[in-house]
């Protein structure tokens, strides 16, 4: 099958979150299965094009009231070994930031930037003479690709091309002033007709969700949750309407980079059969965070974006956080690695100064992330919502038992300890409150001190769990065929 991925992120070229890992890993797996997979994305300023091949002449892309020109480079970056086409446009992408910067989180010309990506994808395929059977778009930056398939590209070379749109995080929708619709070269009738209208504004993701043949998201539980008012970010009505076409597929994880048996970033490798190395890593972790060396004291790790979504309001919000009480009341150490919202960084720095058994590192550091996974006994992830989540999967592989809120991908990957049978791979709570975090951490700590043999069997069970890309890719293969069938009318549309 000829498959075109349209994306704003791709590891290792540009990454802000799990989306970048997912597109690279899925592309690699599909290519391995024999599909002709190609990727198109912007060439951000930070992507070095030295060594990339320049493709054909400049590409003319209809945009706004005219046409703009982009250069195209091809690279085969990273482990995926699939062609990645980079659309290069100095005015729109020649700056720092993928969606924005710290000072300006959402660039005001993002409609131009991502229209260039989506419309450019079609122009590129035409110029290459390579017409995909499926276009797989990721999140709001790629949402216009499915709208164009039903408008400008409805007739012509793409008339049989199916579309799949994956939601990696419904919290980000690409909402802009409605006047920006002219940039897409779609008439006003499309503002309502193609589903852009969103409380008087232009919502790119919403139009994509209306137009794509198949919708997916990155875990089965998240697929259900986003159809509810609580997690639907005001698109739950539309998603419920399209529930027959909406599927949740758990992302796989990278068992090469995250393998305690071969991890070169940690002081001592270890496995289910030989767990002694984990204690060495714990000692190294205690040392790295200036905590006393004590193998008997349970260590709780966190690696996270510091944002409300991840539960930091409940952990360290100025009025009601549970982290202070956890560190004060329990015989534990807690280490936190993260960067993010300023309020959160400040609160954590204050707590770090006040609590001797808390270590905080405000940085993005992959080596420390690996050390925390390897050296901790528990991994805390009290996310409000978690479309899939990678860190709890890494934790399972490293025998670091997750303590999680039962939501999204966390619910689909971590099994709660059943104290009667001893089954389970972690500790799960249902309602996200500071009290629930405090109690559940308390339960884990109690189990550590009183039922150590249970911790051991849970660890082994956790380390043997696998979330494989080959399983997920097989599901996507199926969806691609359904998308083509819907597009070509073999399956009647349900909306
Ligand atoms: P999200 O994409 O919502 O941020 P995920 O759990 O899906 O959350 O993915 C986060 C990824 O980013 C993981 O690979 C995690 O290890 C990594 N990460 C997050 N914060 C840091 C940090 N401060 N240092 C190193 N790696 C980090």
Summarize the structure.
The chain contains 19 helices and 19 strands.
What does this structure look like?
The longest helix is centred in the N-terminal third of the chain and has 19 residues, at 110-128. Helix 1 (18-32) crosses helix 19 and helix 10 crosses helix 14. Helix 15 (391-397) links the parallel strand 17 (378-381) and strand 18 (401-405). The protein has 495 residues and is α/β, with parallel strands linked by helices. The chain has 19 helices and 19 strands. The strands form three sheets. Strands 1, 2, 3, 4, 5, 6, 7, 8, 12 and 13 form a ten-stranded mixed β-sheet that branches. The protein has helices spanning 18-32, 90-93, 110-128, 139-142, 144-149, 189-193, 204-211, 220-225, 236-241, 276-288, 312-316, 323-329, 342-354, 366-375, 391-397, 408-413, 434-450, 452-464, 469-487; strands spanning 2-6, 36-42, 53-54, 59-63, 66-75, 84-88, 134-138, 162-167, 175-177, 197-198, 201-203, 214-217, 246-248, 299-306, 333-340, 358-361, 378-381, 401-405, 427-429. It has two domains: 2-252 and 470-488, Rossmann fold (3-Layer(aba) Sandwich); 276-466, Rossmann fold (3-Layer(aba) Sandwich). The relative contact order is 0.11. The radius of gyration is 23 Å and the shape is elongated. The protein binds adenosine-5'-diphosphate. Adenosine-5'-diphosphate binds next to strand 14, strand 15 and helix 14.
């Amino acid at each position: 099958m000829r498959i075109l991925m349209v994306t704003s992120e791709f590891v290792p070229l540009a990454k802000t979150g799990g989306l970048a890992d997912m597109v690279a890993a899925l592309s690699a797996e599909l290519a391995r299965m024999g599909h002709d997979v190609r990727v198109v994305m912007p060439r951000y300023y930070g992507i070095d094009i030295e060594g990339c091949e320049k493709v054909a002449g400049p590409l003319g892309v209809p945009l706004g009231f005219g046409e703009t020109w982009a250069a195209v480079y091809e690279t085969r970056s990273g482990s995926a070994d699939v062609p990645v086409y980079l659309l290069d446009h100095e005015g729109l992408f020649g700056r720092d930031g993928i969606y924005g910067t710290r000072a300006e989180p959402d660039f005001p010309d993002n409609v131009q930037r991502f229209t260039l990506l989506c419309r450019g994808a079609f122009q590129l395929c035409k110029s290459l003479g390579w017409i995909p059977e499926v276009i797989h778009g990721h999140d709001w930056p790629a949402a216009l690709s499915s709208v164009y398939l039903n408008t400008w590209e409805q007739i012509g070379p793409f008339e049989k091309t199916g579309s799949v749109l994956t939601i990696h995080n419904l919290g980000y929708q690409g909402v802009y002033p409605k006047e920006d619709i002219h940039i897409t070269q779609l008439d006003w009738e499309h503002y309502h007709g193609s589903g852009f209208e969103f409380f008087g504004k232009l919502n790119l993701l919403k139009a994509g969700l209306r137009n794509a043949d198949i919708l997916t998201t990155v875990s089965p539980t998240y697929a259900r949750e986003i159809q509810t008012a609580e997690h639907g970010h005001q698109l739950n009505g539309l998603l419920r309407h399209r529930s027959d076409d909406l599927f949740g597929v758990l992302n796989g994880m990278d068992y090469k980079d995250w393998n305690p048996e071969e991890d070169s970033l940690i002081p001592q490798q270890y496995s289910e059969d030989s767990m002694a190395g984990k204690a060495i890593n714990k000692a190294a972790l205690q040392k790295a965070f200036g905590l006393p060396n004590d193998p008997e004291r349970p260590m709780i790790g966190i690696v996270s974006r510091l944002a409300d979504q991840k539960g930091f309001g409940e952990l360290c919000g100025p009025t009601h956080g549970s982290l202070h009480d956890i560190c004060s009341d329990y015989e534990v150490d807690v280490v936190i690695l993260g960067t993010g919202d300023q309020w959160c960084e400040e609160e954590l720095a204050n707590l770090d100064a006040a609590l001797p058994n808390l270590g905080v590192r405000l940085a993005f550091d992959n080596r420390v992330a690996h050390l925390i996974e390897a050296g901790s006994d528990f991994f805390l992830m009290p996310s409000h919502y978690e479309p899939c989540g990678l860190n709890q999967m890494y934790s399972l592989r490293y025998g670091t038992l997750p303590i999680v809120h039962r939501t999204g991908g966390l619910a689909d990957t971590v099994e709660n300890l059943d104290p009667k049978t001893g089954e389970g791979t972690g500790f799960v709570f249902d309602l996200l409150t500071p009290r629930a975090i405090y109690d559940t951490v308390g339960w884990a700590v109690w189990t550590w001190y009183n039922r150590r043999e249970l911790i051991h069997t849970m660890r082994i069970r956790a380390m043997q769990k696998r979330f494989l890309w080959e399983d997920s890719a097989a599901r996507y293969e199926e969806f691609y065929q359904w998308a083509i069938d819907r597009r070509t009318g073999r399956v009647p549309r349900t909306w």
